[in-house]
Design goal:
Length: about 425
Amino acid sequence: MKVLIIGAGTGGLALAHLLKQAGVCMAVYERDLAPNTDSGGYRVGISPAGSRALKACIPGELYDLYVATCARSPRYFNMLTEQLGEVLSFDVDDAGPNALDDERNVIRKTLRRVLLRGLEDDVFFGKALQGYSNNADGSVTASFQDGSLATGDVLVGADGTSSAVRRQRLPEARLEDTGIVSLGGKIPMTVETKALLSDKMFKGMSLIMAPMGFGAIIHSLEFADSRSDPGVADRWPDFVEAFDEDSIGWGIWGARQNCPRDPAGLSGEQLRELGLELARDWHPHLRALIRMTEPSTIRDIKVRTSVPLTPWASSNVTLLGDAVHTMTPGRGAGANTALRDAALLGRMLVEADQGRKPLVEAIHAYEVEMLRYSTEAVQESKKQMDAGDLAHRPVVGRLQLAVMRGVMRIINAMPALKRRAFRQMMRVRGEN
């Protein structure tokens, strides 16, 4: 069996590693022109379930490298007011034994570099998919915009939100605009910038809940331990320079109708001014973080979500990750769900390759399970970022915010309720 994987993102590369280790013939085709084309320097949060799925896909040595390139794990998950008052704070040490043993923060471009290791001869760049065709012998042929072709027994669309595979395989699949606009940036971690964060904010990840449905996230990334570890330099000398500088990242979002202007198309300087305008009544430290951010690091994001699909007739063409279930960042579940897809689909394809299950039956088993858990993740993620929610209305939204904060403060004062709330938060990210 030969598997064609379209897209060298997190899910596609994890799947490629699993198949390669099992002796399944595969090749990855990526539209970027070179491995370092993806210059995104922003974090991706990998949950414990995401880390376990990744560990099931890649060689042990590579998993060690992944762990070494991650920032220190967060100890706290904080819910704060826009004045930095604590509403709810989860301390990982109180959440149960090893509750977040493998919670990771990693820079997206670094993770891609890690996952490309060992696949140098299997990933082909500059291959933008034009379309695919099904052949009389049951195989499938991918056609690329450069005129080249590739034929295999299975084609997997791992080509992200704008998936060319999805457009052909599931033309009925739709994305919808949530009405939420978002912007964010990062600043180097210095004595001055670190002083803007409380101890819990510095050691954890913090979500800001503000009036009119506006929200923000603050996280600090420290790589100092790995960067200075001689063991890391000895094992992976070519990765020492790949470590990102320690930084503080921030993001802010809200309903488009409540923003003074749409961030789409604005320059970095204009985005910074918009961020300051949105946070004009917030704590001075939050405004200082935005003000001190170099405009070139600030990006805007149009928050979209997939419309959940009904089951379809399975074939030897399937999808994983954002190609089939784009979700908002409201629950931090996107990359983790893609890794879960890769581990599950990989197992099913190995079973088919070994003759233990017919190919289409194996893919069907994957698609049924993937639709089950991804639909829940999409819906839960949208709840956090939907411009139609009452939270974005002036009067009702303030009342809803006050009630929500009151409930969270009660939970914060009751350890049993707090543990239950923590489990619910992690369940959407793949935890049982």
